[in-house]
Amino acid sequence: MTARIATGAWLAYGAAAGLMALFALVKWGQAVALAAPVLYGEGAVAHAAMLARTFATYGDAGGASFTAANYPPLYFLIASVGDPFVTGRVLSIIATIGIAVLIARRAWAGSRLTAIVLGLGWLALAPVAVWGAAVKPDLVALALTVAAVLALERRRAGLAAVLLVAAAATKPTAALPALALALWVVWRDRVLVRRFVTFAVIAAAVAVVAAVPFGYAGLWRHVVVLNALPWSAESALLLTFLAVFLLGALVGAALVSRGFSGPIAAYAVAAVCIVALGGREGATINYLLDLAAAGSLGLAAVAGRLARTPLYPALAIASLAVAAVLLDPLGVVPGRAATTGAWADPARVATVRAALASDDRVLAEDSGLLLATGHRVVVDDLFLWSRSVANGTIDPAALLAEVAAARFTAIVSEADLSQLAAGPAYERSRWEPSLVRTILDRYRIDSRSADGLVIYRPR
What we know:
Elements: H1 2-34, H2 42-52, H3 73-79, H4 84-108, H5 112-124, H6 126-131, H7 138-153, H8 157-168, H9 175-188, H10 193-210, H11 216-225, H12 233-256, H13 262-277, H14 289-301, H15 303-306, H16 311-326, H17 347-355, E1 361-364, H18 367-372, E2 376-377, H19 382-390, H20 397-404, E3 410-413, H21 425-430, H22 433-442, E4 443-448, E5 454-458
Parallel strand pairs: 1-2, 1-3
Antiparallel strand pairs: 3-5, 4-5
Helix pairs in contact: 1-4, 1-5, 1-16, 2-3, 3-4, 4-5, 4-7, 4-14, 5-14, 7-8, 7-13, 7-14, 8-9, 8-10, 9-13, 12-14, 12-16, 13-14, 20-22
């Protein structure tokens, strides 16, 4: 009787997670077809990928130009093939689905039903649904890290080392799991140390040589210096609260069932540290992805025991329902505005294409809209430009002079800049105060669109 209840609970969770995963996959497919940004910051990544075709990603164009390029070059290079909004997004989708397959494979020997449901459950998690198709390196780095964890479980230290170096060459925070797993190898399995270190050194040497065409000075400035943004305990606590809210059932079940052991435990520790790093200015729910992956691997490791209890699937269903109703990042609930990292309205692309058809020099809050409509980009990440000005990392004079001289024929914002003080914190962080004052002095609102864009033109 208990076995039947457990099976029924897992089937019910599979149905719920499957529906959520299907909805996410449909949304991801629509985003690929759109060939435009759906998340803030994708424009900067796409722009960096375009520059990677000539190894100019980390170069300094001078003047008012600003390129963020605050990731290592691996993802940029791969996404540079074709349209980055298509190639980069497909790459992330493949990586996200690949993680689901790895989770299911890890659980397969314990219970096939549980394995399939855990794979679907990964795809249905809110952070994964939002970021699974992002034109960002997060999911590619995550897939490499997850594969490395499983390789270490199978004592394939050389392969794990190469995968971890590749992950760190994709996204800086991937260095934390790499360090945690390296320490685990040294502490718990010294037989593997020599092979792990040898392959790690070889892979790192290859990565260093491969970065030569980009220039080390520029790469250091963009990936390290520009990324040195302030950290606050308040932001870290807010993200931690969100982690409990979204992933409490997943991580809690893995802890109680003792799924965190071996390399998975080392990865889980690193994942918690990444959540703490989420107190960094500009961090969002992508800092929860490693914890979601570690928790899923922990459950997969004890799939056989987990399959015999209805408790976790019941909690997981409740967690999915609460996330959908309260957060609804992909707009699952009819008539409710999506929140917490929600995708932007795809209609913005048509709005910009029509409104700026005759414009050449435009400053936009979301530079991806300019790239998607064939416009030249001057500043590809206004948030990072503004924070770098606030930190004293860059001089704003060149851009302020361009704006003061009204050399931009249009400025595109997602808010009325005159009311910015009353706007959300993320919006204020994207607009440096001196830039806002200069815009309001030299520009006026020309139009407002139903999809939330405000277009300014010279007075």
